[in-house]
Amino acid sequence: MALITKAIKGTKDVLPAEVHKNQYIESTCLSVAERFGYKEIRTPVFEHTELFQRGVGDTTDVVQKEMYTFDDKGGRSITLRPEGTAGAARSFLENGLCNEALPQKVCYLTSCYRYEKPQAGRLREFHQFGIECFGATSPLADAEMIALAKQVFDELGVSELRLEINSIGCPECRKKYQDALREYFGAHKDELCPTCQERLERNPMRLLDCKSPQDKALAENAPVVLDYICDECSEHFDSVKNYLNAMGIEYTVNPKIVRGLDYYTKTVFEFINDSIGAQGTVCGGGRYDGLIEEFGGQKTPSLGFGMGLERLRLVMEAQGCEFPEAEKPDLFIVALGEKAQLKAVEIAQDMRNEGFTVLLDLNARSLRAQMKYADKLGAKYNIVIGDNEVENKSTVLKNMQNGESCEVSLVTFVSDFYRISMDEQLKDLEINGEAFDFGSLFASGIGED
Ligand code: ATP
Ligand code: MG
Fold it and tell me: Which of 44, 42, 47 is nearest to 70 (CA)?
């Protein structure tokens, strides 16, 4: 029985009282992405295992240690997506987006699955906001992608993040660099962790990203990639920096960033926070000019990033960023007796049609119990309908925040409610000097002519 009421280790529920915070972060991400020309793409939660082996790279930690892989009942090897790029790239090819005008810009809010040791900022199911720009060669695309992430942080009020960038070159210049790494780490082969001893030959750059303490210590003094990149990669990197300067985006060059996924080329970057503990990288990404070809498509230089939404929220909370308040119900209708119930249902329907949030008692409770429930829900207004009110076609509308009340007709209730609640909002506005919420004026439709 205990298992039934216990969530899987490394997963987290988002409860109704908190979900508006996630929705606020998510809608900000989508809204910023839209302003840069990105449209949402939705791909399946699982894919053929080969897709990630090829796309993420079969010598990466993600593929070697972290994937949720299983055989389905038909004997196919299936993997829960550990990241969003491979699925988006597959879809780009499979659905012929590659034949449309380039670049194709897609974004997503998606769950990801990695078998890792759960801790602060590290879950087994987590969520990413990601963007992918397929088919863009200019370094402006790299800078724009970074600017997009930065704008999300700015709009959410997140300031405690530093941007680090690097270039890890192209497959050409990387050959020389990999030789240098093989030589450097080869001299210490016995000290490496078993996984790294194996990947030293095939993919020595992965050693720079290993989490084992002795490998990390060795990586400190390893050759850095920036000393090896070719002229073209170097010019590209300079140009990205120039664009960032022109955009007023501050960064530092960290020649040690290589990123954990194999597909990156040239520009890589991370936004890092220092106050939420060891897992401080909130967003990471870069250019991946070879990935689409790796999947069998035409050469399509591309780029993208993934932003960890749980980590982003941790940073926001650590920094004390403001979140909007959860929306409260506009009206709770207390109904007593059968006739009153029918009237209440009718009014609720009319009000909901106009965009108001209206709740009714669903347990045939007493007047007191219904009032208590309305109070718990934080309803802005209530009315009570009993036999008398139905007969007289009128009731009392009570403002539950300030206790004020006034007589209202049940016949013209919706428009009366609209007028009264609007008057009070305007009054509050004068008193508090707050920004008036014009959105709610039009949400009901009544304000439009
Ligand atoms: P890390 O070095 O922290 O393991 P990563 O390089 O594996 O990160 P990416 O694959 O680049 O991460 O994923 C992009 C973002 O997704 C990360 O910067 C982070 O914010 C978030 N992320 C990655 N793994 C997890 C996880 N297990 N739990 C929560 N968020 C994660
Ligand atoms: Mg990782």
Answer: 47
Sheet of 39-40, strand order: 39-40, 104-113, 125-134, 302-308, 281-287, 265-272, 162-167, 252-253
Q: How big is the chain by its Cα radius of gyration, in Å?
A: 28
Q: Which two tokens stand for residue 266?
A: 């040239």
Pocket test for ligand 1, best of 311, 312, 314, 315 (most atoms within 8 A of CB): 311
CA-CA-CA-CA torsion for 111, 112, 118, 119, nearest 10 degrees? -70
118 neighbors 66 (Cβ within 8 angstroms): no
Does residue 128 have its Cβ closer than 6 Å to ligand 1? yes
Question: pLDDT (tens digit, 9 = 90+) per residue, 190-242?
Answer: 999 999 999 999 989 989 988 889 999 999 999 999 999 999 999 999 999 99
* pLDDT single digits (tens) 318-336: 999 999 999 999 999 999 9
Residue 394, H or E segment: strand 394-399
For residue 112, the ligand closest to its alpha carbon is: 1
* Token duo for residue 151: 């704008």
Ligand 2 geometric centre to CA of 302 (Å): 22
Atom of ligand 1 nearest to the CA of 281: 18
> Which candidate, 98, 134, 127, 132, places its Cα nearest to that of 112?
127
Per the CB < 8 A criterion, the answer to whether 77 and 49 are in contact is yes
To 10 degrees, what angle do helices 231-246 and 139-156 make?
A: 40
* Residue 305 Cα: closest atom of ligand 1: 14
Distance in angstroms (rounded) separating the CA atoms of residues 410 and 394: 5
Does this model's pTM top 0.90? My answer is yes
127 lines ligand 1 (CB under 6 A): no
